[in-house]
Amino acid sequence: MSINASDILIRDPFVILENGKYYLYGTTDMTGQGYETYRRFSVYCSDDLKTFEGPFVIFDADKTDFWGEYNFWAPEVWKYKDKYYLIASFRSGTHSRAVDILVASSPMGPFEPFTPAPLTPENWECLDGTLYIEDNKPYLIFCHEWLQVCDGEICAVQLADDLSHPEGEPFLLFRASENTAVTDHRKGSVSKVTDGPFAQNINGRIQMIWSSFIDGRYAILEAESDSLHGTWKHSVVPIPFDGGHAMIFTDKKGDEYYAFHSPNRTPYERPVFFRKTR
User: Fold this and answer.
1) Measuring CA to CA, which of 51, 70, 246, 262 is 20 to 30 A from 6?
2) Which of 260, 253, 249, 277 shows the shortest CA–CA distance to 77?
3) Where does 96-201 have alpha helices with state H?
4) Strand locations in the chain (E)
């Protein structure tokens, strides 16, 4: 079934271009009850980013022996060593929210469980994992949630070369409050959010976008460092979009685009693709 981008209900959109076709992933299978989701992920396909086909189910946990029970959030699909890896957030009644990874031989799936255990620490509340390669080593960048630490953190952990498990301990990149523009999640609270990190290597430096709240508005922020273990510099001027949880992809012409959801109000979220000019 064809559907216009403006009619797709989605949070946390993530786009890849493979063999001349765009694949749109995200928090797509929402139940209509806040941020709750069914136990599955779907994809939409497009030739022009305007009209899409789908949704096509690419992972159905009810058909597998998978630990996650709810909060199937923010899938990202990465091609790595000829396989496609879906990194997403999950939770169960007996396990904290965690980042885990699925695998498939096609961007259309079907994806299957891949790791022996979630990639983030067992007792941490975590979400929004993304893949980053530094010095030919894969790293998972993820958020240690403000719900647990109040001042939300963005952390990283090195992964095994096949992405199947962490190697070593997670380390802190920065806290939400290190960007002085960030304000409390809600008026009267003492918590600051870190959401949706996405990192690129540009001219030998890490350029990261991530999301938080500034005076009650969900916003996309920028940070940069010379390495994951380096010192992070923050821009206090948010990217001027009415939305967040962004990533960057390259279109068929070679131009870079932001993908993000807007507005940040359920059930009105829609995918937005905006050409990157800086």
Assistant:
1) 70
2) 249
3) 146-149
4) 2-4, 11-18, 21-27, 40-46, 51-60, 70-80, 83-92, 95-104, 112-113, 126-134, 137-144, 153-158, 171-175, 195-202, 205-214, 217-225, 233-239, 244-250, 256-262, 270-275
- Tokens 């799936």 sit on residue: 109
* Cα gap 115→126, rounded to integer Å: 17
| Residue ranges of the chain with per-residue pLDDT less than 50 | none
Cα 9 to the chain's mean position, in Å? 16
What pLDDT sits at residue 151? 97
Residues 49 and 273 sit within 8 Å (Cβ to Cβ): yes
**How far is it, in rounded angstroms, from Cα 90 to Cα 127?**
8
Domains of the chain: 2-269 (2.115.10.20)
Phi and psi at residue 119, to the nearest 5°: -85, -15
What Cα–Cα distance (Å) separates residue 202 from each residue in 140, 158, 159, 207?
18, 20, 22, 7
Q: What is the DSSP string of 115-141?
A: -SS-SS-TTS-EEEEEEEEETTEEEEE
Cis status of the peptide bond prior to 138, with omega within 30 of 0: no
- What's residue 76's pLDDT? 98
Closest CA to 214 of 190, 244, 183, 239: 183
Give buried/exposed letters for 81-119 (b at 16+ CB in 10 A, else e): eeebbbbbbbbeeebbbbbbbbbbeebbbebebbbeebb
**pLDDT of the residue at 265:** 92
Distance CA 16, CA 3 (A): 18
pLDDT at 34: 87
What are the φ and ψ backbone dihedral angles of 18, each rounded to 5 degrees? Answer: -135, 125
User: Do the bridges between strand 112-113 and strand 270-275 make them parallel or antiparallel, or are there none, so unpaired?
Assistant: unpaired
d(CA 176, CA 192): 6
